[in-house]
Design brief:
Length: 533
């Protein structure tokens, strides 16, 4: 017995080590193929501007408890405190990391790698997959490019990926060894994910089912109470701590039409929207297959994974009816729940989200799908082997041969000349932009205009050019940022609440600001920064 336990223990430790090294090895090899080191990742060369908001908010919280200027859009602001449109709960892992290790431009990258490593270690420790299952998972992990790309950024996707892996690992462990404290943790994890991204409430359905299965009517009451509490907290966060975005982050016209125009018109609108959005979804898939459109690749992988999960759920249900087993029942529960969640998220995407922006949110579900599909018992089941093999081929084809777009897949590596220029900007701004001690106020806010209209030598017609917002990574700690549309700044220039504004030299706004006599505190060939009062 001791001999068997020793072998088993050694096997588990080797698997834990393999799982722990997988994210780091993938990151290392990716950088090596690009001629760089992991430490060469440099956020200011990224084109994803959401990262700037996340990074600077964390920096401001660590340095001043809360940002001393408002984060918003067209000078919107939260009713309480100074956060942007997204839930500040998303910042929690980076804040903890920053408190322990400090915060700089590489901190979120190392934090992300740690989070993914922790998730995979817990996956092995809680689920105890065999070598074949771990091997299948590793193949999926290597092929799914978003894993490495999101580890190399300051977006919260890795937090969501890690949480969903830990969530399903614990759910499987709970089903194998039912303990009340594990069920409580499942509720906490699902609640935390919901507060981060509201559509992740779909994962809350699994602990609800498990609690009702265990406690019957008491479980119904407890589940309803916990769900309402989570939704109430989410409402408070959304209502009080979130600044208004340019446009709604998700659409509810499919529902409100029932109340404004009656049931018949509401139903007609619902079917019509579902139809047209479905066509757009298919068109994105076609573009993904032909041209490598990132959203289309997500959609193809999502639909493929969803079909496999539904088929496996049906097959395992039939098998369970013929030859019941505890392990088969447990796998059926997690498979069917995830299949249901896939369908629910697809409906939500078609009805409430923009296709391009909404596509990245499917990555969290794909992460869960990769984990669960890798655990499917392939022994003796030709259909399961074919389905898993097809998924591997689909991901391999799309992410190796089609996913070439630098914007979505190229990690941001350092440009030494750019870094030197930004350090110069930092030294100037640290002297010229002094935080007001009046507490959070618009005196501590800089406007970043999304675009300006710039005339070229070859054309009389001005062209829209993007402002070099990446320079704002070097904004002094504590300042807030308001991302504003060109039209908003143009129309409200004399009544802007923010004290500072960044524009493009020789752009329309830049010329207008100069004509008004506002004080310039920094200017080079790419950006101009003015003090408005």
């Amino acid at each position: 017995m001791r001999e068997t336990f020793k072998k088993l223990s050694n096997s588990i430790w080797i698997k834990l080590l393999a799982a722990a090294l997988l994210p780091l090895i993938c990151c290392f090899i990716y950088c090596l193929t690009k001629g760089h080191k992991i430490s060469d990742i440099y956020l200011p060369t990224s084109e994803w501007n959401d990262e700037l908001f996340y990074y600077k908010q964390v920096e401001s919280i660590l340095s001043h408890k809360i940002p001393q200027g408002f984060y918003g859009f067209n000078e919107s602001q939260a009713l309480k405190l100074t956060f942007a449109a997204w839930s500040p709960v998303l910042l929690a892992p980076w804040l903890l990391w920053g408190l322990v290790f400090g915060w700089n431009l590489t901190a979120p990258i190392y934090c992300n790698i740690f989070l993914m490593t922790l998730a995979l270690v817990l996956f092995v420790a809680l689920v105890k997959p065999n070598w074949k299952q771990l091997g299948v998972f590793a193949v999926f992990f290597v092929l799914f490019k978003p894993f490495v790309r999101y580890m190399f950024c300051c977006m919260p996707e890795i937090t969501c990926f890690a949480l969903v892996i830990i969530f399903y690992s614990l759910a499987i462990n709970y089903l194998n060894h039912e303990k009340n404290y594990k069920l409580v943790i499942l509720f906490v994890l699902a609640g935390l994910m919901t507060l981060m991204r509201p559509y992740l409430i779909l994962f809350l359905l699994l602990p609800i089912y498990l609690l009702i299965r265990k406690k019957k009517w008491i479980g119904v009451f407890l589940s309803a109470t916990v769900t309402l509490a989570i939704l109430f907290v989410y409402y408070l966060i959304k209502h009080y701590l979130s600044a208004e975005y340019f446009k709604p982050l998700f659409f509810t016209d499919w529902l409100t039409t029932f109340f404004t125009d009656g049931f018949a018109e509401g139903f007609k609108h619902f079917i019509g929207k579902f139809y047209w959005m479905g066509l757009e979804f298919i068109n994105h898939m076609i573009s993904g297959l032909k041209d490598g459109l990132a959203s289309g690749i997500y959609f193809i992988c999502y639909i493929s994974m969803m079909v496999v999960l539904i088929v496996r759920s049906i097959c395992d249900l039939k098998k369970q009816k013929k030859t019941p087993s505890v392990s088969g029942r447990n796998m059926l529960i997690v498979e069917s729940h995830l299949a249901f969640s896939f369908v629910g998220m697809l409906i939500a995407l078609l009805l409430m989200y923009k296709m391009t922006e909404g596509s990245k949110h499917l990555a969290t579900f794909l992460t869960a799908g990769i984990m669960i599909v890798s655990l499917i018992d392939l022994k003796g089941f030709l259909g399961a082997k074919i389905q898993t093999g097809l998924l591997i081929l689909i991901l391999g084809f799309l992410y190796i041969f089609k996913a070439k777009d630098a914007y979505n897949y190229q990690a941001p590596f350092i440009d030494n000349d750019l870094a030197a220029r930004y350090e110069t900007i930092e030294s100037v701004l640290s002297k010229e932009m002094i935080l007001s001690d009046n507490g959070p106020s618009f005196d501590n806010v800089i406007i970043w205009t999304l675009q300006d209209m710039v005339s070229s030598d070859d054309s009389d017609m001005p062209m829209a050019m993007n402002t070099e917002w990446q320079a704002l990574y070097y904004l002094p700690e504590g300042f807030g940022i308001s991302c504003c549309e060109y039209e908003y700044v143009k129309e409200n220039l004399d009544s802007l609440k923010s004290k500072y504004v960044m524009t493009i030299p020789l752009g329309d706004l830049d010329k207008t600001i100069k004509e008004r006599g506002y004080s310039s505190i920094y200017e080079d060939g790419s950006i101009s920064i003015y003090k408005l009062r």
